[in-house]
Amino acid sequence: MLNPGRVSPKTEFPGTGEFVYTQADFEMISTLIHAHAGIVMPREKAMLIFSRFTKLLRAQGLRSFSDYVEMIRTNSAERKIAIEALTTNHTNFFRESHHFDHFEEQVRSTLIDELRSKQRVRMWSSASSSGEEAYSLAMMGTNSQLARQILDADIAILATDLAQHCIDAGIKGEYSSASLRDIPKPLAEMWTSNVGSNFLIDKRLRDIVRFRRLNLLDPWPIKQKFDVIFCRNVMIYFDDVTKETLLHRLTDHLAEGGYLYIGHSERVPSTLASRLVSVGQTTFRKVSA
Ligand SMILES: C[S@@+](CC[C@H](N)C(=O)[O-])C[C@H]1O[C@@H](n2cnc3c(N)ncnc32)[C@H](O)[C@@H]1O
Questions:
Q1: Which of 78, 132, 183, 245 could hold 188 in an S-S bridge, CB 3.0 to 4.6 Å?
Q2: What pLDDT digit, counting tens, does each position of 62-92 carry?
């Protein structure tokens, strides 16, 4: 537990004692992170901030968190680095697989019909982390005899995340062989190849997934509407107002009849009831106006 006033990590935390970290520093950092990324940092996260920021302080040659607070308050590039350091990027291929089953059973054939009638299909993995979610969707969307036809059609998946290192990993499309076990075997055989001890996502899929850095709290430079949006396991870090505002904005960007998938512990508030109807476990469809 942090005490008010200047405290030494040596006595308060299992740190190196090299840095000075006070409750006031923690409060300033949590206010900044909330204002810029929507992420709520309760007091239990005080040590997480300490451990993730010490590397950043060292890189800047600083010994005191209050100096670093001043730096991230005034320097937006360093603030981005600090916010990224606090994100949790855990993900895996076909995470919460019931969403991909729903997509395969209820959504894919409609989208293929749209592609056949020369319309385009747009999907968005809106907190994509390192890309596993977007590539799972791409594999699911193209898992059929029609793969070639689909890949030649106007289909695109936008994958966005706040963390630049996640975007870089997604663009690379190379993952450790341990994560291969999360991909159904026929899909892994069709869409991945080995590179050393890792595997690489097939270029044809990498070409339909477009990665961009995007903070969901900022204005979105996106005009199009999406047939499918995944926004999973990011709202858990946000406060209620941020979640609700985000869900309304996502719904604005859904095509009528489009599908929204959210994380297993996330909920849609009642103010969205006239816009989104539940069609499965944490799965929603935008109602026609
Ligand atoms: C736990 S991961 C979830 C990844 C994937 N959606 C899944 O369910 O497996 C949460 C991701 O949200 C991103 N994130 C956190 N705050 C964000 C924000 N304000 N805007 C965009 N992405 C954010 C983090 O960088 C992280 O990669």
A1: 183
A2: 999 999 999 999 999 999 999 999 999 999 9
Determine the Cα–Cα distance for residues 12 and 10; give it in Å rounded to an integer: 6
Q: Whose CA is nearest to atom 3 of ligand 1?
A: 233
Helices (H), the chain: 9-12, 23-37, 46-60, 65-74, 76-85, 97-102, 108-116, 132-141, 147-152, 164-172, 185-191, 203-208, 240-252
DSSP 202: -
Domains and CATH numbers, the chain: 9-85 (1.10.155.10), 97-286 (3.40.50.150)
Which residue ranges have their beta carbon within 6 Å of ligand 1? 37-39, 87-91, 95, 127, 129, 133, 161-163, 166, 215-217, 232-234, 237, 263
pTM of this prediction? 0.93
Bridge pairing between strands 192-195 and 198-201:
antiparallel
CA gap 8, 257 in Å, rounded = 56
